[in-house]
């Protein structure tokens, strides 16, 4: 009976580890696709800072057991990025994304709608 409980607990911890790695990976990929100037415009830490922190969070969550304190720090960093930094970057014009251009009908002050 004890082995069944331990197996279930180990399975739960494995799923939790995958979820936490996914959280850090999502934050890292999102930070990589944001413009550097968007971080400054949103008055947040720099893009290299967040990419390093989120990459470390991903590596730590992969290497260490979830019961250790290092993955907990990585989870906190990932949550701070997703809850605080990402919405601030998305609120900027263009969403702070790299490679995003306006429509072909955009004028110098926004979209041209033909006088409608």
What report would you give on this structure?
The protein is mainly α and 116 residues long. 66% of the residues lie in helices and 3% in strands. A two-stranded antiparallel sheet has the order 1-2. Helix 1 runs antiparallel to helix 3, helix 1 (2-32) runs parallel beside helix 4 and helix 3 (47-63) runs antiparallel to helix 4. It is elongated and about 75 Å long. It starts with a helix and ends in a 5-residue tail after the last strand.
Q: What distance separates the N and C termini?
A: 73 Å
Radius of gyration: 20 Å
How many β-strands, per DSSP?
2
Shape: elongated
Structural class by helix and strand composition: mainly alpha
The residue-averaged pLDDT reads 84
Supply the number of helical segments: 4
**Which segments are poorly predicted (pLDDT under 50) over 5 or more consecutive residues?**
none
Strand content: under 5%
Q: How would a textbook summarize the main sheet?
A: 2 strands, antiparallel
Q: What is the chain-wise order of helices and strands? A: HHHHEE
Instruction: Order the strands across the largest sheet as they lie in space.
Output: 1-2
The amount of helix comes to: 55-70%
InterPro entries: DUF2516
Region (Disordered): 89-116
Pfam families: DUF2516
Protein name: Membrane protein
């Amino acid at each position: 009976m004890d082995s069944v409980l331990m197996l279930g607990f180990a399975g739960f911890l494995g799923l939790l580890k995958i979820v936490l790695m996914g959280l850090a990976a999502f934050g890292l990929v999102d930070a990589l696709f944001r413009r550097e100037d968007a971080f400054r415009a949103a008055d947040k830490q720099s893009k290299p800072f967040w990419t390093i922190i989120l990459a470390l969070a991903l590596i730590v969550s992969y290497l260490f057991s979830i019961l250790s304190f290092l993955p907990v720090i990585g989870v906190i960093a990932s949550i701070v990025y997703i809850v605080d930094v990402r919405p601030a970057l998305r609120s900027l014009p263009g969403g702070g994304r790299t490679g995003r251009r306006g429509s072909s009908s955009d004028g110098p002050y926004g979209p041209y709608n033909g006088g409608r």
